[in-house]
C-alpha cells in the first residue's frame, strides 16, 4: 500500500537513514550506556585535558569511561539543551546565575549527599562553596578557578624603577601618581571584548566594592539588597575615576578604553620602554601576553593582588571558575562527582595549564611557575573568595546593563549617577 | 504578443514574441552587449572589486601570521616591510585542521552530510509549491502565498525551543535528520517566494498551449516549467547550500558538539573561553570556505549561462 | 567516515526520490477522484508537503510565540500585555526600534542599487572579466556572518594612540597624521551603525547581484535596440526599457533583503552586541532569549517584528494584484 504513507514517506526515509547514522555515533547528550559518563565544559583545552586524564584514572577501577566534550558558551547551550532533554551527565558551569536557573528548571541535582561537605569546607577557600549553593543546598561544585583583581607588571623594568607593591588602596593611588610624575603612563586598560564588551570594567567595580565594603556588603549588593545607587558603589566609582580618568593615567586616554581589546591591552607593558606600567586583570590574562614574554614568565612578569582598603583589614578576593553540576544522579555519575571533589583532581592539569585549584591543601609545587604560585597564594590567603558578581546577577544585569552602562560611562556617553540608576532600573522584578 | 506580467508598453517586435514563447536551451547566447564597457564602467567595477577584496585579503594574510604579529602590526606590513614575509607560517592552519582540539576531517564529512540533503529536498518541494502558486487557480491561493511571505520575517531561532521539545519526544535529538528537517522548514518560505516570483515571469502562453495539447499539470511541470526555471533553481540551490554550510546556530542547537558536529561547530572549539586562539579561527575559516567557493565556481558557468536562458521580465 | 559520506549521498537520493514519490502518489490520488474534484484538490496536494514543513517549523512556533508573549519569562503564568508595556516603556527599546528602522531605510535600497550596478556594468565586460568581477562580489556570501565579523575587525580596529594600529582605517588616517578613531564606539550621526551596515552590504550584495544579473540578461535585446534606434541615450534606455522589465525581480530582492535586515542579529551581536547605540530588534531578541532567559519578553519582540512586516505585505499584495490584472 504505497500511498498509505504518503505523508510519512520522507520521515520514514529520514528515520531509516538516521538508524544507519546513529550506529556510528548518535546523540550528543546523556548516554544510555550507564558505564559512560558524559561531561560538557567550556574550560580551556589544556585544563580539560589535564582534568580528564586524572579523572579517567580515578574512575577506571569502577569501570567508568569519561566522555568529555568541549563546547562553546555552555551557559546558553545548557539552557537550550535542558529544554530539549538532551543534556550531558555533568556540566561545568561558570556562572552561579545559570546554576540557579538550572535548579529552578529542576535540571541540576543536589550534591549534599554526594560529596563530603564538611571536609570540603575545611579544604576549600572560604566562600567557594557558597557560589554553587541555592536555597541552602549545594548544586555547583567549584573544580577549577581563576583569580581576578590581580595587578600585573613588567618585572625587570619595575624592579629597575624601584617601585614597591602597594599595601592599601591609598598607596596604590600614591604609586599611580608617582609613576605619572616620572613621566610614564601608569595604567594599561581595555574593556573591549566583542559581544561582552564592558566586562573587565565590571570586574574592576566588583573588586573595589568588596575591598571597600567587605564580603557582607558585597553579597548584599550582588543580591540587589544594596542598590547600585548607594554610597559604597559610588565610592568604588569615584576611585575608578581617579585611577582611570585622570589625564595621563591611561595609555591612549579615557576615550581609548572602550575600544581597546582587553586581551591585547596589557601588551604595551612589554614594549621597551614600557608604554604603560600596570594592568589589572584576571589570572587568565597571561595566556594573552606575547610569546616572548610567556617563554619566561617568572623573569618577565610580576603580579600582586589588588590591595585592601586598610592594611591588615578584611581582604576578600574576587574570582571565577567552573562549577561541576550534576544533571543525572545515577550511581556512576555520583562516583565521578566524588572524584571531582578531591583535592588532587588537578594534579595533571596544574603543571600544563592555567589551572588553579580552589583547595587550599593543593600541592603548590605542581604549579608550573612562580607567577601562578603567587596568584594561588593571593587566593589562599584571602579572608574570603567572592565569586564574580556580574556572573551571579541576573542575565539582564550581569551580562547586559552592567556591561553596557559601564561602557557608556567610561566612554563619556553618560555620567556615573545615570549609569548606576540605569542598572538599578534594569534589575528584573521577579 | 506575449503577455508579460506588468502592463508596461514595450515596442516588442514579433521576433521577440517568438523568442520568448519558445523555451530556450541553456546554450543559446545572444549578444547582450549592446554597449561596450567604457573607462568609467571599468573604473567603477575595479573600485568595487578592490573594496570587496581588501578586507578578505587582509584576513587571508593574517591567517598566515603569528598571533603576536597580528596583534602588534597591521597585515600590510608584509608589503611595507617585505623582510617580514619570512615570518609567515602555516602553523595556524596546521593547528586548526590537524590540531588536537577538533577533528576537522570528521566535521567536514558531517557538513557535507548535513548540507546536501538540506539543499536538494527543500528545492524540490518548493518547486512544486511555487508551480501551484503560479499556474493553478484555487481558493485561498493568494492568502496562502502571502502567509508564506509574511513568515519570512519570523527569525528561525523562534522555532528552536519548541522544536527541541518535539525532537525530545520523538527521540530525534542530535541526529542528522533533525537538522535536515529544520533546514527544509526554515528555507522553505524563501525558496517558494523566489521561485514563484521567477515562475510568474515565464510566458503564460507556453503553459496555456501545453494545456490545450492535453498535458497534465504533472507533465507541464516536468517538461516545461522546471527546465525553464533552471536559472532560479540553480541560484537558490547555491544560496541554500551556502546558508546551510555556513550555519552555526541550527547545527549547534539541534546537533550540538560531538560526533556529528559540522565544521562551523568545530571551528568554535578553536577559541577558548575568553577568545584566546582567534588566530586559529581565521585559518579555520578559510579552510571551511574552500567548499562553498568550489561550489560557486563549479556552478557559475552553468549558472550564468543558465541564467541568460530564461527570459526574465518583471 | 566513508559510511557517513555514503549515507549522506544515499539520503539525498532517497530523500529526493521519496519526495518525488509523494508527489507522484498525490497526483495519482487526485487523478482517481472525479474530474471536478481533481482540479479542485490537485493544487492543495502540490503545496501540501511545503506547507507541512512550514507549518511545523514556522507556523506552529509562531503561534506559540504569540501565546508566550502574554506569559511570564518561563511561560508559566499569564501576564497580559505586561511584556509589551515593559518594552515600549523603555527608552532603550524605542531607540532599538529607531535603529532597526534606520537599517531598513538604508540597507535594502543600497543593496539593490549596488547589486543592479554590478549586474548592469559587468554585463558590458568580456565574459571572462564579467565572471571574475561577479565571483569577487559574490565571495563574501561564502563566509559565515561570524567569519565576516572577524574579517571586518581588521578594518575597524582601534589601538590606543601611540601604539601600532592593526586596523586598516586607522592606519590609513594615521598616514595623514590623524589620531586613531574608535570607529565602532562612535555613535555620532550613527556612524557605528552605518559601519555595521557596510558589513552586511558587503555580505549581501552578491545575493542581489546574482538575481538581478539574471533578470538583466533576460531583457530581450530587441527592445533595447528599438529604443536605441529611436535615439534614446544609455541612461534613458536603462530607466525606461530595462528597469520596467526587471521590476518584478527588483521587488523580490528588495523585499527579501528588507526582511533579512529586519531580523539581522549576528553582525550586531558579534561586533558590538548593541552597545554604543547600535542595538537592533534581532539582537535584543537574542539577548532576551539567551542572556536573560526571558521567554516572554523575547516573544513580544518577535510579535513586534511580525507586526512591522505588515506594511511590506500590503505593498506585496498590491504588486500582486497589479500582476494578476496584467496577466
Automatic annotation (TrEMBL), chain A:
Pfam families, per database record: SBP_bac_8 (PF13416)
Keywords: Signal, Transport
Signal peptide range: 1-25
Keyword Manganese (UniProt): no
InterPro entries according to UniProt: Bact_solute-bd_prot1, SBP
Assigned protein family: Belongs to the bacterial solute-binding protein 1 family.
Protein name, as recorded: Alpha-glucoside transport system substrate-binding protein
Automatic annotation (TrEMBL), chain B:
Origin: domain of life: Bacteria
Places the protein is found: Cell membrane
Name listed for the protein in its UniProt record: Alpha-glucoside transport system permease protein
Matching InterPro entries: MetI-like, MetI-like_sf
Pfam families: BPD_transp_1
Keyword Magnesium in record: no
Transmembrane segments: 44-64, 108-131, 143-160, 180-199, 220-243, 280-299
Domain ABC transmembrane type-1: 108-299
UniProt similarity note: Belongs to the binding-protein-dependent transport system permease family.
Main location (coarse class): membrane
GO cellular component, one term: plasma membrane
TrEMBL record, chain C:
Subcellular location: Cell membrane
Lineage, uppermost ranks: Bacteria, Bacillati, Actinomycetota, Actinomycetes, Propionibacteriales
PROSITE patterns given in the database record: ABC_TM1
Domain ABC transmembrane type-1 as annotated: residue spans: 97-314
Transmembrane spans: 7-26, 46-67, 101-122, 134-155, 167-185, 191-212, 292-315
Topology relative to the membrane: Multi-pass membrane protein
Secretion signal span: none
Family: Belongs to the binding-protein-dependent transport system permease family.
Domain of life: Bacteria
Keyword terms of this UniProt record: Cell membrane, Membrane, Transmembrane, Transmembrane helix, Transport
Protein name: Alpha-glucoside transport system permease protein
UniProt keyword annotation of Membrane present: yes
Pfam families to which the protein is assigned, alphabetical: BPD_transp_1 (PF00528)
Example of a GO cellular component annotation carried by this entry: plasma membrane
Source organism: Nocardioides panaciterrulae
GO process terms (BP): transmembrane transport
